[in-house]
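Record minuted for everyone:
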Amino acid sequence: MTDQEWEAQNGALSPEEARAQGLCWHCTGKSVLYTAFGGDQVTVPCGECRGDGKDRP
């Protein structure tokens, strides 16, 4: 999987769409963020929702 494909797993919802569904706008409800640099593909817990995937008003 390429770095771009890896990062594409973060989702395509806009912040407004994610919030309307009750999901964290940052990780789109997945609880983790996908990041890659130079072939090193990593997942990190979402700091915005603290890993539960829910919207924080």
Observations:
- The two ends are 35 Å apart (CA to CA).
- The longest strand covers residues 32-37.
- The chain has a mean pLDDT of 93.
